[in-house]
Amino acid sequence: MKKNVSLLASAVISLGLVASANAATLKMAYDADPVSLDPHEQLSGGTLQLSHMTFDPLVRWDKKLGFEPRLAEKWERVDPLTMRFHLRKGVKFHSGNDFTAKDVVFTFDRLRNSPDFKGIFAPFSELKVVDDYTIDLKTEKPFPLVLNNVTYLFPMDSKFYSGNDANGEPKDKLVKHGNSFASRQLSGTGPFTVSYREQGVRVEFSRYGNYWDEKSPGNVDKIVLTPIKEAPTRVAALLAGDVDFIAPVPPTDHKRIAQKDGIDLITMGGTRIITFQMNQERVEAFKDARVRQAIAYAINQQGIVKKIMKGFATPAAQMSPWGYLGHNEALKPRYDLKKAKQLMKEAGYENGFSITMMAPNNRYVNDEKIAQAVASMLAKIGIKVDLKTLPKAQYWGEFDARAADMMMIGWHADTEDSNNFFEFLTACPDTETGLGQYNSGNYCNPEADKLMHQANSETSPKKRAAMMQQIETMLYNDAAFIPLHWQNLAWAAKSNVKAEPVLNVMDFPYLGDLVVED
Amino acid sequence: MIAFFIKRLAQAVLVMFVISLISFSIQDNLGDPLQEMVGQSVSEAERQALRDELGLNDPFLVQYGRFVKNALQGDLGTSYFFKEPALEVILNKLPATLELVFGASLIIIGLSVPLGVYSAINPHSWFSKVVMGISIVGISVPVFLTAIGLIYFFSIEMGLMPSYGRGDTVEVLGLETSLLTADGWSHLVLPAVSLASIMLPLFIRLIRAEMMEVLQSEYVKFAWAKGLMTRRIYFLHALKNTMLPVITVGGVQIGTMVAYTILTETVFQWPGMGFLFLEAVNRVDTPLIVAYLIVVGAIFVITNTIVDLIYGLVNPTVKLAGKK
Q: Is pLDDT of A1 > 50?
C-alpha cells in the first residue's frame, strides 16, 4: 500500500514537472497534410511523418543513418534467417490497451496486404511469437535489410482495430479510396494523438499523457499543423510570426530567411537523386556506350547546382548518396566538353542527332529549369532536344508509356539502401518480377544485376558495400543514366524552436523529442 | 413569372448536363488518379487491380452512364482525397468562398460608386486623375502579385494582419462563418482586398463612363434647365440610369469573381472551394473536379437569374419572358 501511495505521489509530482517544464504549442506549416490517418494506406512522406508522430516503429533511423531502438528494446540475429526482437514492456496505446507481440503480428499481417507496403515486407516469410514480448522475424534467404525494413513497422493497436464499425465493415479494413474506420481514427503508442482534423485545412495534435518514452526531452504538448501549399505564403507566415516551423523552404528564400533575426534556416544534404534516363529502345545511338558517355561528359552538374539550385543540392555522379553503403567516394562528376565532342565523333555522330525529352514541371525542385539547362548543354555536342514539360499528374502516365527519348526521374530509396535504386532504376526491366519498373532507358547489364542479387542476400555490411560500390562504378563507366544531383532538404524555424536535433535526411522530424524554449 | 422560372430551370439542367459531359470527357487528360493514390514502388499489377476496383478501366460511356445515374439521385461521386461525397465536400467549403466574395463585393460597391461618380462629375480634378491612374495599375497587376505584395507589406513588414488562412468561426444556423468574429474579419481583409483589386478598377471606369454619358443626355440637361437640386440630378436621375449596365456587368462578373477566388484562395491558403479545386486538379481528384465545375455552373445560372429579376425592378421597360 505504502508503495502504491509513493508511486502515486511520484506520478503526481512528475505530472507537475511535465506541466511546469513550460509545455509549448508548436504551430507548423507544411506543403501538405496527411492523406489519411491509416498508416498503411499510402507509402508517402506525409504518411511516415504522421506515423512518427502518432505511432512508434520497432526501430528508427538516427541522424547518422544508424538504428535507434524504439518499441524493440534490443535485437539479435539468432541464425542467418532469423532476427529476434525484444519488445519494450509497459507501453500503452492511446486507447489504454497494452502493447504486446500480438499487436506486432496484427500490424505485420496488415502491412503484407497493403498494396503500398507489401513490397517492403515481401522478403519476410514469417513473424513468430516467442512470448508476449519477444518475436522472431524470419526470411527465406539471408536478408541484410531486416532493420531497414522494420523502420516501417509501426505497431497498431490490435484491440482498437478489431471488430466492425458503424457501417458493418471490419475496423481494420484497408481502403485506398473511400471512407474507412482506420482512415479516420487511430490508436498508436506515439507521443501525440490527433485531437482535431479538418482535411486540407488543419490538424491538431495533443501530447499523449502516458507516453512510454519518459526520457524524451520533448516539451511540445500541442501541435497545430496547417498545410500551406504556396511556398511564398508559407515563408510569409513564418516571417510574419504566424507559424513557428515550416518545411520545405524554397531555395529562392534561403538567403532572406538566414539573414532574418530570430529565425533559423536548417539545411541538410538529401537522399533523393535526380537523373535523366536515355531510352535505348527508342534511340539507336543510345545503345552505343560512347554516346551515353558523351552525354555524361557534356552535362555540367556543378553548373546546374550553382546556377539553378542556388547551391541547394549536391552534384552527383552516382545514385547512392553519402551515408549509403553503396556510395563510392571515387566517382566524381566529369564535365568535359572536349572529351564529349570527341566521343561523339568516335561513335560516328559528329553531326549530332535529334531527340525528344520530357520532364515534370511541378514534381522536383526546379525540374523544368533543370531540363532546359540539360537540353542546352546537349545542344553543345550537336544533340538537338525537343523538350516537353508537364505537370506531374500527367507526367507519370507519359513516363509509364516511355513517351520520350530522355526522361527525368527522381528517386528516394524507401529502404535507405543503394540496392533499391538499382532494383527500380537500372535493373534489366522485367514485368514478371517488377525489376526495372522505372528504368525507362531499358539499360540492361546482366553482370550488374547478378551482383545486385548477390548483395540482396549478403548479410555482411562490408561485403555488401563492396558489391554495391562496384555496381555504381559499372553504371558510371557505362554511363547507364545521367545523374544530376541530390536535392537538399531545408526547414526553417523560429530560434526558440530547437528543431535541428530532431531533423534527419529522411525528412521525418521526430517531433515528440522537440524542445521549444520560452 | 412561373414560366420564366421553369424556362430558367430547364436551361440550368441543360447547362449542367453539358458541363458534366465536357468535364467528364476531359478527365482522361487530367492525368492518372492512381499516381496520387499509391506510392512510387507499387507494381503495375497492383495498380491495374485498383483501377478495376475504381471502374477506371470501363469504356467512357459505361462510366458516364454510371455517373449520370448517380447524379440524378444527387450523388456526384466520392472524392478520392477526402473520401467523402464530392458535393458535400464542396458545399462545406462554399461558405468560406462566399464570405470572400461578399467581402470583396462590399469593397467594390463601397468604393466604385462614389469614386466613379466623383470622377464623372469632376473629370479634370487631380483626384480623378489619380483614381484613373491607380485603376489602370490595378487592372494590369495580376491578383497573385497584388496578394503577395499585400502579405509582404501588411503582414511581414507592418505585422498588422495575419498572413494566411481563415480566422475563428462561429456556427450560425448550422453554417460556419467567420464574419461574426474580430479574428475572422482581420483574416478576411487582405484576401478580400486582393480579390477586389481586379474588379474594382473595372467598375470605377464603367460607372464613370456611363455616368458621363448620362450627364450629356437630354433629360439631364432638361433637369438642369428646370432648376432641380444638384444632388437630386446626380444621384437620383443620373445615377439610376447609370446602374443598368453596371448591374448587367456585375452579374456576369460575380461568376468571374468565383473563378478568381481560385488564385486568391491559393495564395492566402483560404479554405474555400477555389483552393479546393486547384488542389483537386493537382491530385487528379476527378470526381471532385467534375462536381466543382457543375456547382460553379449552377452558381452562374443562379446569379444570372437574380440579375434578370433585379433588372426588371430597376427598369420597368424590361419584360421577363412569360411575364404578361
A: no
Measure the CA–CA gap between B82 and B67, rounded to whole angstroms.
Answer: 19
Residue numbers of A between 31 and 70 with CB closer than 8 Å to B:
35-36, 42-44
The whole-number average pLDDT for the span B151-167 is 86
Residues in A closer than 8 angstroms to B284, CB to CB, are 393
Residue in A81, A401, A440, A56 with CA at minimum distance from that of residue A286: A440
Phi, psi of B260 (to 5 degrees): -70, -20
Per-residue confidence (pLDDT) for residue B5, from 0 to 100: 81
Burial of residue A7 (number of CB atoms within 10 Å: 0-12, 13-18, 19+): exposed
Q: Where are the domains positioned within chain B?
A: 89-314
Asked whether residue A510 is assigned to any structural domain, the reply reads no
The strand pairing partners of B117, in sequence order, are none
Residue A384 lies in a domain: yes
Of B36, B156, B269, the CB nearest to A229: B269
Burial class (CB within 10 angstroms; exposed 0-12, middle 13-18, buried 19+) of B204: buried
- Is residue A194 one of the residues assigned to a domain? no
Give the rounded percent of residues in chain B with a pLDDT score beyond 90. Answer: 19
Mean pLDDT of B134-157: 87
Q: How many independent structural domains does chain A possess?
A: 1
Q: Is residue A16 very low, low, confident or very high in pLDDT (cuts 50, 70, 90)? A: very low
For the whole prediction, is pTM greater than 0.90? no
Check B269 against A230: CB less than 8 A apart: yes
Is A132 a domain residue? Answer: no
Domain boundaries, position A455: 269-488
Interchain proximity A431–B80, CB inside 8 Å: no
> ∠ CA A413-A416-A421 to the nearest 5 degrees?
35
pLDDT given at position A3: 44
Could you tell me how many CB contacts below 8 A there are between chain A and chain B? 131
* HSE value, Cβ hemisphere, 13 Å, CA-based, for A242: 26
CATH 1.10.3720.10 fits B89-314, yes or no: yes
Nearest residue in A to B31, CA atom: A394
pLDDT of residue A10: 46
φ and ψ at A473, to 5 degrees? -65, -45
- The β-bridge relationship of strands A202-207 and A192-198 is antiparallel
Q: What is the CATH number of the domain that holds A324?
A: 3.10.105.10
Q: Are B70 and B27 in contact (CB under 8 A)?
A: no
Measure in Å the smallest separation between the Cα of A13 and chain B Cα atoms: 36
**Taking a contact as any Cβ pair under 8 Å apart, which residues of chain A between 4 and 33 contact chain B?**
none
pLDDT, tens only, A83-139 = 999 999 999 999 999 999 999 999 999 999 988 898 899 999 999 999 999 999 999
Say if the ipTM goes beyond 0.85. Answer: no
